Automatic annotation (TrEMBL), chains A, B:
Aminotransferase class V domain location: 30-327
Species the sequence originates in: Persicobacter diffluens
Pfam families according to UniProt: Aminotran_5
Cofactor field: pyridoxal 5'-phosphate
Keywords: Amino-acid biosynthesis, Aminotransferase, Cytoplasm, Pyridoxal phosphate, Pyridoxine biosynthesis, Serine biosynthesis, Transferase
Protein name per its UniProtKB record: phosphoserine transaminase
Gene name per UniProt: serC
Protein's UniProt keywords contain Cytoplasm: yes
Residues making up the signal peptide according to the UniProt record: none
Length: 360, 360
């Protein structure tokens, strides 16, 4: 019997995915050469739809990587000589900061306790960062970083590149690309695609920095240097044979989302988010991890469960509903519920009703 | 109208692929968490089937990368301190050698003219290599490197790691894993899968070398270090969210191939290879690029076309048959035809008949 997946990624696939897989077979997307015109057309179509859906400025470049995890390394390798600044309010923002440190960068880290946002305002910054990294939506804790706080960092360090992890946020939470230089996500979250593709969007300022570091011989010469990714992307090509199927599917699902309208997607997300947060407040054994309303993620709802999360997760599994456990150390004590575009209002309503009825 | 793809990768998908995609949807493979037991079971199944199909020794580890191109970087980063030796008889073996050089290794290169094999025997080797890289089947030229020659290198440099590119060869061309330490391929060639997954098989000796280099602080700290790939793989896990769909599909198609029998696959390949090479000899405007029988690839047939390859390629396209042009500089003068397990005897016979009838 099919299950409904509310784990925050990989999660339920987008409801049109099956149709697009059928089209991919019919159009022989998996058999075409990645050097063919058919591939270039497909690539161009995906770029066009993404650009339109996310309102990416024309002068920004869109490149594909193999995952968002890869982007952490590529940012550290291509956009930073020495210093970066990271705001950590969960495991994923932490892993990103650690990637920069692993690759020899002086990555300064501002941390927050669980459920709070590591903010620029009030932080004691010790070094001038070349790049400032924010996590718009921390998938581990469901914390949203408010844009107003990021703006303050930009004002204080106008030279720095602004990097933004939107892995589980986009396209639900809007992005003003003009405020950022390096924005990235993976496709198995809100886009409801099979995993195995990262999308990295870079500003002219980021490319300029990569050019300068390259000229100075300071970019690690991996097989995926940013400048070569960009150069290939401009002619709708990739360095190696890519995940063509996913590039195709992303273009199709971006088109579906354009048709539905991103405003409608956002309106529904807000409704579902309200239901989930209300559940966490109303249920006697649940409490929201993130208590400040402006810090609550639009797409990932996290709650503490009195007595531990396992019984609730098991109970829902018996109803064919799969939600996430807490991340890392919080595995046994928390639940995480994805509120992605493919999760319908009716599904979330049903899930909320089921949980409301549940007691240990 | 559907086309038949004989380009040497990406190429025609394996004939059972559509069924497995349907199963993947039914089993919700694209929605499960990569940290779930369902994922571990799927991963273990793929490893088991691959190990059985390719007769990979129990003490060798199988890890997944995002492409074979990635493996070039990972080998240079994890298995070599200073020196490597490369036998180049086409663009792909060349790109591999260049990757080692790009990453700062002293990569010695032995080259051959087009259609010949760069052999160890008779080569003047200037340095003692830590790793010797061979390309079993050069996809650009259709040259097969004879095992007997590789064996001589192993005898002369018993300390060196033996690396083998089997990208477009496996499972058609057999591999004696005991003779090699690092063997890799991508799945969009003989396995007929969507692109976006690399498979890297390493010996205990290779792991030992990586351990030593890691202890000495000589391994570049990427997000995909060999030792961590191995550590995760041992518990059927991956470092980041992987291409789960492809790992699943690879397991299924390996199972299909096991059922058919690898002996049968090899017998059919030999028959098809003979037809193609005979065509190249018999047709007045074609001539085989590789003239020595023991150097002719089992899976990729390459021919020079008198007057240029474009008219023949166009003629076949009008019959819904898509073959490859020559690679790189040979694009306009050569054709390349894949003879992969999914290409049936009947399809190759029909293709050969069509080409036999063709004149400029």
């Amino acid at each position: 019997m099919p299950q409904l997946f509310f784990v925050p990624g990989p999660s339920a696939t987008y409801f049109t995915l099956e149709d697009h897989l059928k089209s991919a077979l019919k159009e022989q997307v998996m058999a075409i050469s990645h050097r063919s015109q058919a591939f270039k057309d497909l690539y161009q179509n995906t770029q066009k739809n993404l650009r339109s859906l996310l309102e990416i400025p024309a002068e920004y470049e869109i490149v594909f990587t193999t995952s968002a995890t890869e982007v952490w390394d590529r940012m550290a390798e291509n956009l930073v000589d020495e210093t970066s600044l990271h705001f950590v309010h969960g495991s994923f923002s932490d892993k990103c900061a650690k990637a920069f440190q692993r690759l020899g960068k002086k990555a300064e880290i501002i941390t927050a306790e669980a459920g709070k946002c590591a903010k620029f305002e009030g932080a004691n910054i010790r070094q001038t960062p070349e790049l400032i990294h924010f996590t718009l939506n921390e998938t581990a804790t469901g914390v949203k970083h408010p844009y107003a706080d990021m703006q303050k960092a930009r004002e204080q360090f106008p030279e720095a590149l602004m990097a933004l992890d939107v892995v589980s946020a986009t396209p639900t939470t809007p992005i003003d690309f003009q405020q950022f230089d390096s924005v990235y996500f993976s496709v198995q979250k809100c886009f409801g695609l099979p995993s195995g593709l990262g999308v990295w969007i870079v500003s002219p300022k980021a490319i300029q920095k990569a050019e300068q570091l390259t000229a100075d011989g300071k970019v690690y010469p991996s097989y995926h240097p940013l400048l070569e990714l960009v150069e290939k992307s401009k002619v709708y090509q990739t360095i190696e044979t890519p995940n063509t199927l996913n590039i195709y599917l992303l273009g199709k699902i971006a088109e579906d989302m354009l048709r539905k309208g991103v405003t409608q997607i956002r309106r529904e997300a807000l409704y579902k988010k309200t239901l989930l947060q209300k559940l966490f407040t109303d249920h006697p054994q649940l409490s929201p991890l993130v208590t400040e309303a402006d810090l609550q993620s639009d797409t990932v709802a996290v709650a503490n469960v009195e007595g531990g999360s396992a019984p609730l997760i098991e109970y829902l599994k018996s109803k064919q509903m799969v939600i996430g456990a807490g991340y890392g150390k919080a595995k046994a004590s928390q639940i995480r519920i994805a509120n992605f575009p493919t999760h319908s209002k009716e599904q979330i309503e049903y899930l909320v009703d089921l949980i409301m009825e549940w007691r240990i």
